Each structure stands twice: as C-alpha cells, then as structure tokens.
Amino acid sequence: WHLVNMNKKIKLLIADDHRLVREGMEAMLSGVADIEIIGTAPSGEEAINLARSNRPDVVLMDILMPGMNGIEAARWLKEIDDRIRVILVTMEISKDYVSAGIKSGVDGYVPKDISKNLLLDAIRTVYRGERYFNDAVKKLIFEDFYTVEKLKNPKKALPNQLTQRETEVLGLVASGKSNKDIAEVLDISVKTVETHKTHILIKLGLNNNAELIRYAIKNNIISI
Prior knowledge:
The chain is an alpha/beta fold. It is built from ten helices and six strands; from the N terminus they run βαβαβαβαβαβααααα. Helix 7 (about 165-175) packs across helix 9 and helix 7 crosses helix 10 (about 210-220).
C-alpha cells in the first residue's frame, strides 16, 4: 500500500438497488481509516448523478439494477472521468457479464459473498490503478482462454506482426494475469515479460493494459 496515499482517503460510492446491501456495505466500510464513503445510490442513473457532483475515486457497482444496469453505468462513469475506478460487485459470475464489464472498462469484478478484507484489497488495488478480479473470475477467463484458443493455432494470422511469444503474452495479459504469473506460465523472467508487453503496445498502437484487453477480446485473441 503506497505511502503517498496514507493521508488521502479513498472516496467511495456504493451503488446497489437493495437497501440492505447498500447499508450493509456502508456499515462494514465506514470505520476503515483510509475509506471515506461519499454516498450510496439505488440505481445506475443515481450513481452517475452522484459521481458527477462528488467525483468518487472508486465505485462499488451492482450489475443487476432496475433501469440502467451496472455495466452501462460503468461505461458512463468512465466517459465522465476515466480516473473513476469501478468494481462490479455481483451475485452473478458469468462469462457474459465479465466480458461486457471488461469491454466497458471496469477495473474489478468481485462476488457479493467476498470477505471484508478481500473487498478492501480490491478497493485499494484499483485505487492504485491496477485491476482486481477474484480467483473465480480469473479462472473463468483463463479456462476459456486455454480451451478455446490455445494461441498456438498455425492457421490463425498473428495480429500486426506480433510474434508467437508476443501473442501468448497478449493473451495472458488480457486474461488478467500479472507479470509474475505470466513469467511463471511461460518460464521467462518478469523483465522479459515487461519487454514483450512494451513491444506489443507499440506494435498495436495501444497505451495501456485496459486497451490491450479490449483489443484482445475484439480480435478474438481471447474468447470470453
């Protein structure tokens, strides 16, 4: 946890159509030293209005709400200010939702039965600018990534002159794997992974991991 953020509280907004869930999360997190809850919202629309006026750092967003769902709301929030981090908190861990969430640019995806410590870990992780997917979500993305593609299909044209190894790295990054995980899977050093990532971003004309993931889904490098 970075020292620079020690004195700054993470401004948090909670959006869920169930009052009990909203109040439960608020009660659970309100005593935490580095968290400041700036509001709660019963709908996606309300979350957007609150975010416009209060600019939260992190939004905990339910997916299934009447009116605008959490994934649409996440897309809107990112358009208002792409520094707002959105974590989808849901009962439903499904490929469709995970895929739609990633395409909308969400920063994290966790189940509603997550523990307080893991939820705090998720909030702090996305606040630092990283992504947070719990193991069930990673497994879902990762299983598919291996079963559907294997990324070793010789008939498949490699995008923009990526090498075979770069394509593998791209697929692993897009599956939410950390540099350390990728290094272990491919049996290379973390530094080599970072070099591959830099080359991939340059070759594809992309700026960051989020764009890379969207590219990978759009071009069927990974199939979610």
